[in-house]
Amino acid sequence: MIIVTNNEGGSGIPTTAKLLEQGVASLDAIEAGVRLVEADEAVRTVGRGGWPNLLGEVELDASVMDGTSLRTGAVGALQGFLHPVSVARQVLERLPHELLVGEGAMRFAAEIGAQAGELLMPHARTAWRHWFEDEVSEGERNRWPDVPMADLCRHAIDPEVGRDTTVFISQDRAGNIAAGTSTSGWGWKYPGRLGDSPVIGAGSYADTRYGACACTGVGEMSIRAGTARAVVLYMKMGMSVEEAVYEAVADMRSLKGGLIGRVTIHAIDAAGGHKVVAVNGTPENYYWIWRDELASPISCRPEIIAISDDPAPKSTAHRRYEQMGL
Ligand code: ASP
Predict the structure, then answer these.
(1) Residue 323: exposed, middle, or buried by beta-carbon count in 10 A (0-12, 13-18, 19+)?
(2) Among 184, 183, 188, 172, CA closest to 132
(3) What is the CATH number of domain 2-324?
(4) What is the spatial distance between Cα 187 and Cα 152, in angstroms, rounded to a whole number?
(5) Cα separation of 121 and 282, whole Å?
(6) Which of 8, 164, 321 to mutate to test the pocket of ligand 1 (most atoms within 8 A of CB)?
(7) Which end of the chain lies in a sparser environment, N or C, as judged by fewer CB atoms within 10 Å?
(8) Are 168 and 42 in contact (CB under 8 A)?
């Protein structure tokens, strides 16, 4: 039995670990843990309290994958609901589909009675308002929101404003492997932007026969490299979990242009092994792990591998965030 989550998963991993210890299935234990992270307003990048998009609206992405049935459920750009991971779970349980976005996802969330609530918290509202007043020209403010947003997005977005997604990957007592993700994505993203978190195969993948992988950081990179599926496929083709993650890092080295920043790759194998690498990471990056023999989850440092000497410059939104001490 093993669970690995990124640093933002700290408020959920004790519960997931306890449930796994009691014999609860991977997917249920993950959903319970992710819900706690979504409810934790101190986590500025997941659920309530997450950073807004350019319009000042919080849009949430989440996914789950059952590695035994290979069923998935995911939602993207979901507004107004507190637990996107549970809406994603119900996509898996109730629909013949795997991914819902935007208005359709909201319609489905309302239809199943998912818990609605305000997602934009005062710190995020204040930061967005300051950005709007300081960085958007008077002419654009007067025409808002009917203004071109591509340039605003290029200058404002920064994955590290958001700090992180939460990702959980685990194996239960019966050997079932599952994955779950939840995020508000990048702060100041273009409305409707989906990161890797709801894209199965990019931000997460689980296959009980081989293992699971989930990513945080610049989702655009994991989407381009198909990272999570690639790691599991490399294990299927005979690589160890370490070799599979290194191969996925090599895939990322091949990316040309676009935004290159940090991506942390978390992976487990079916034999209880794990590997976490922070591509372009920094020394403060960490993750949580729990196994049967541990009394409680422990935090560990990932291996850091630089693939770029030229990480993206801090955006105006990131500077604003730091200046305000938010
Ligand atoms: N991977 C997330 C996304 O691209 C963000 C993050 O983990 O920092 O939306």
Answers:
(1) exposed
(2) 188
(3) 3.60.20.30
(4) 12
(5) 28
(6) 164
(7) C
(8) no
Contacts 24+ apart (CB under 8 A), 20-23: 20/170, 20/172, 20/173, 20/290, 21/292, 23/172, 23/173
**Ligand 1 pocket test, candidate residues 63, 153, 196, most atoms within 8 A of CB:** 196
Cβ-proximal residues to 96 (8 Å cutoff; 6+ apart), any chain: none
The DSSP code for 249 is H
pLDDT of amino acid 144: 96
Average of per-residue pLDDT across 62-81: 98
Q: Does residue 309 surpass a pLDDT of 90? A: no
**Catalytic status, residue 165:** yes
Segment 25-53, tens digit of pLDDT = 999 999 999 999 999 988 888 999 898 99
Instruction: Label residue 210 by pLDDT band (50, 70, 90).
Output: very high
Per-residue model confidence as pLDDT tens digits over 165-197 = 899 999 999 999 999 999 999 888 999 999 999
Mean pLDDT of 123-141: 91
Which member of 165, 181, 183, 227 is catalytic? 165
pLDDT band at 260 (very low <50, low <70, confident <90, very high): confident
**Domain extent listing, the chain:** 2-324
Q: What is the DSSP string of 31-47?
A: HHHHHHHHH-TT-TTSS
Q: Is the torsion defined by CA of 161, 155, 135, 145 positive or negative?
A: negative
Q: What is the mean pLDDT of residues 109-133?
A: 94
Ligand 1 pocket, Cβ-based, cut-off 6 angstroms: 159, 162, 164-165, 183, 185-186, 195-197, 216-217, 219
Phi, psi dihedrals of residue 95, rounded to the nearest 5°: -115, 155
Q: Is the peptide bond before 145 cis (omega within 30 degrees of 0)?
A: yes
The pLDDT of residue 45 is 87
